[in-house]
Amino acid sequence: MTMDDIADAAGVSRRTLFRHFESRERLIAESLEAGIQLYGELLPTFEGGWNAWLEASVTLLMRCSGYGPATGS
Fold first, then answer.
1. Contact 57, 65 (CB under 8 A)
2. Rounded CA gap, 64 and 70, in Å?
3. Whose CB among 4, 5, 16, 45 lies 3.0–4.6 Å from 12's, allowing a Cys bridge?
4. Angle CA(36)–CA(53)–CA(58) in degrees, nearest 5?
């Protein structure tokens, strides 16, 4: 995927992307970091029941990834 592809998908110019990210690799790295941080913030709080916590965590992961029964896929 090129910066042109990313710019087209985002509906911005390539120049706009380069104002915010020095390279495609930096854009991808920052996107991954933001996604991991958001996932961490969404994780359910462990309140003593491993089975319920694990089920809720896996359901969240499936919903975030867009796959599995949690999404209807």
1. no
2. 9
3. 16
4. 50
